[in-house]
Every structure is written in structure tokens, then in C-alpha cells.
Amino acid sequence: MGAKSFLINSLPFAAMVMVECLDVGLTTLSKAAMSKGMSRFVFVVYSNALATLILLPCVIFHRAKRPPVTFSLLCKFFLLSLVGITLMQNCVFAGVSYSSPTLASAMGQLIPAFTFLLAVIFRMEKLDWRCSRNWIKIMGTLLSISGALIITLYKGPAEALFLVTADLCVSISTTFQAAVLKECPSEMVMVFFFCFFGTIQTSIVSLIAERNPSAWKLRPDIELISIIYSAVVGGAVTFGVVAWCIHKKGPFFVAMFKPVGIAAAAFLGVSFLGDTLSCWMYCRSNYNCCRLLWSDLGTIQRERTW
């Protein structure tokens, strides 16, 4: 019983480590596809549309377990997609197209800081100024933001602005998902509508922003591979696993795993995209800024129940 309980309790931890590594693969593939000339707007539309089709059978065949979908819930799904897919994905892929997956992972260390601030604002996290644990979180948040500012000065504000906006959208979406899952406990239903409304919204954005009709033609090379990977791994799998972990452990637990992707991003960036080792240096510096937040993860798991 002890070993079984340990494995069950470790499952969310292992799942989030896997998600972060897969997410780095997504940004690396997308960067490779966009370097070949693929439109980032078209990429977002096709990947979310394919993810919606993949998730559709799950919603249909689990109709008995599906909670009632009210108009109010649909509006929440729509807003969730607007922040978590339309704004976030367009910003992150714009940032990656101008910079690198390594820089995106480095700037992603703002997500734990933003999520902590949102948790305090919405009273999901209580601050006790006499508790050293809360001071550790505050110091980690300040250091994470300081590290992001240093990177912004080093690389320039153009790339960083897109990535900071994407990080804020991820934090808002993660916090909002925790609230939505209390009303709709089925993760797959939420993820399906998440991708469905995201497809509609990004299609409208793409039709306005992408005026070249030939951009919608897919070539059977890295473009097609990246879209399939993004839909299956980045959409259906990642969104589903993250929603499940948010439901089980809460949004702050999910946000704490962002530093995991730094090493993978640096390795893939140097190996396949020709990034310089200086990227690894400032990624490592930003990782150290987040170590104080990471040091509190065990306490959060023991003490918080979302």
C-alpha cells in the first residue's frame, strides 16, 4: 500500500516534468518550421483545429460522464481560449520566431511569479508576513522578475515583450482553469472547448493578419510534422495533463515546473537551431532566480489543497 500510494502521489510530479520537456520540443519544432517560412498565424490555426478533431471522440463517447454545458460555462470556455490560446500562442510563437526556444524558456520563469501574484490577488494563497515560507515566495518572485528584466535589457525589448505577454497569459489561464474546473470537473470537456473556441478565434485573427493565400498551403516536411506534434502533444496531451494537474494540485503546482524546460531548451537549441552558449548562461542565471520558489514546492504539496 505504501509503494502504491507513493506512485499515485508522484504521478502529477512526473506528468508535469514530462509536459515541460514536451513543450520544449514544441517550441523547437515550431521555430524550425517558421525558419523555413511557415506563417505563425497559420501554424496556430492548424494545430488547434487538429487538436479539436482529436479530442472530439473523447467528448462524444464520454457523454454519460459529461457535465451539463450551460451558456455561462460556454462563455467561460470562450474567455479561457481567448487568453490561453489566442493571445498566448500568437505571442509566444511571435517571440520564438524573433528569438529562440531557449529565450522563451528563460522568460517562462516569470510564470511562477505571475501565478503566485494572481493567487494572492484572488485569495487562493494567503500571505502571513510572520511566516518564512511566504518571504521565500516573495523573494523568489522579485528575483524572477529581476532576472527577466536583465534578459530584456540583454536581448532587447521587442522579443521579450511578446514572451512576457505570453507568460502573463499562461498564468491567467492556469488560474482561471482552476476556477472553471470547480464548475466543470471534466478535464476533457474543458480542453475540447478550449481548443474549439481557440480554433475559431485564431482563424479570425489569421484571416486578418495573414494576407498571403499561399501561406495556408502545407508542405509535407517540417511544417506538417510540427503541426501534428503541436496538435497531438502540445494540444491534446499537454492541455489534458495540465488541466488534470490543476484539478488535483492547483495552478501554483503547475506553474512551479517551468524551470524544468531550461536544460532541454538549451540542449535542443544548441543542437538543432544553432543557438549560442550565451543563451545557456542567462538561462542558468534565471533558473537560479527561481530556485527559491522551487524550494517551497514540497511545503505547498503538503499544506495546500486547492
General description of the model:
One of its GO terms (cellular component) is membrane. It is found in: Membrane. Belongs to the drug/metabolite transporter (DMT) superfamily. Plant drug/metabolite exporter (P-DME) (TC 2.A.7.4) family. There is one protein chain. This protein is mostly helical and 306 residues long. The protein has one domain (11-303). Helices cover 81% and strands 0% of the residues. The protein contains 13 helices and no strands. It has helices at 2-35, 40-61, 71-98, 101-107, 110-121, 132-155, 157-183, 187-209, 222-249, 251-255, 261-273, 277-294, 297-303. α5 (110-121) packs across α6 and α6 runs antiparallel to α12 (277-294). The longest helix has 34 residues, at 2-35. It is globular and about 60 Å long. It starts with a helix and ends with a helix.
Question: Which characteristics define this entry?
Answer:
306 residues, mainly alpha, 13 helices, 0% strand, disordered C terminus, transmembrane
**How many DSSP H or I helices?**
13
Major β-sheet profile: none
Weakly predicted, low-confidence segments: 279-286, 288-306
Task: Compute the CA-based radius of gyration.
Answer: 19 Å
Task: Categorize the overall geometry.
Answer: globular
Head-to-tail CA distance between termini: 25 Å
Overall mean pLDDT stands at 80
Give the fraction of residues assigned to helices.
Answer: over 70%
Helical/strand content category: mainly alpha
Order of helices and strands: HHHHHHHHHHHHH
Would you report the number of β strands? Answer: 0
SS strand fraction: under 5%
Subcellular location: Membrane
Main location: membrane
Pfam family, one: EamA
Protein name: WAT1-related protein
